[in-house]
């Protein structure tokens, strides 16, 4: 399978300085984190730890995006319920991998709006949860600290975080490839760093296939970024994807 290591050319990496990095630890667990909302959110105690929802509803999630002109990247606390939602299916397929961080990505309103409008069209109603592996060419530790100092052209992690999946920046024509199984996408998590990057992406498509290939940007919306390290067992699995 051909990978789509979407990335940004050098002149557009300046957008990284505008990414809003935050942590999801709350001042008031159980209260919606949208500034204009005072509603309660769902909480649950599991193994003596309070798990919480960041927003009270999907509506508040999307309303928070309406004001965004750049990507909002939230470093998830392990007690954020979104962390478990992302980590569990990933670890089921790659049990020996070690998740170092999960970031919830809320893309700029222009990107999110185009995706939602596309979803409402009759021909594209099904949204599939897919994975997209890409390169890390910068210092991932600095990235997680909110130090957006990436000046490396073709750094897939930084490019997709800033602008989403862009067919014009694909290394393989205009085709962008997404896999339902993270084992498949693992082969394309490239770079010399010990850290690997994989995006959890909503992909709109008619068919429910293990691999989806799309050429339109609005059919995709990155939702989470998983940064992880691999073991020898993971590398063995890669050979059989």
UniProtKB/TrEMBL annotation:
Q: What species is this protein from?
A: Ambispora leptoticha
What is this protein called in UniProt? 2634_t:CDS:1
Which Gene3D superfamilies does the entry mention?
3.90.228.10
Cross-referenced SUPFAM superfamilies: ADP-ribosylation
């Amino acid at each position: 399978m051909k990978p789509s290591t979407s990335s940004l050319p050098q002149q557009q990496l300046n957008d990284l300085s505008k990414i809003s990095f935050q942590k999801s630890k709350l001042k008031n667990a159980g209260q919606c984190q949208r500034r204009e909302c005072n509603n309660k959110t769902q909480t649950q105690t599991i193994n003596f730890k309070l798990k919480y929802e960041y927003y009270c509803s999907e509506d508040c999630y999307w309303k928070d995006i309406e004001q965004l002109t750049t990507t909002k990247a939230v470093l998830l606390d392990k007690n954020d319920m979104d962390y478990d939602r992302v980590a569990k299916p990933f670890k089921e397929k790659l049990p020996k991998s070690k998740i170092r961080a999960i970031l919830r990505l809320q893309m700029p309103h222009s990107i999110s709006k185009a995706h939602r409008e596309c979803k409402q069209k009759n021909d594209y109603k099904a949204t599939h949860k897919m994975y997209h592996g890409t390169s890390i060419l910068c210092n991932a530790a600095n990235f997680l600290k909110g130090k957006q100092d990436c000046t490396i052209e073709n750094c897939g992690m930084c490019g997709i975080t800033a602008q989403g999946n862009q067919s014009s920046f694909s290394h393989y024509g205009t085709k962008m490839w997404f896999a339902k199984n993270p084992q498949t996408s693992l082969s394309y998590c490239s770079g010399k760093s010990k850290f690997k990057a994989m995006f959890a992406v909503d992909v709109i498509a008619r068919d429910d296939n293990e691999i989806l290939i799309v050429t339109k940007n609005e059919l995709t919306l990155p939702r989470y970024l998983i940064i992880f390290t691999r073991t020898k067992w993971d590398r063995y699995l890669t050979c059989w994807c």
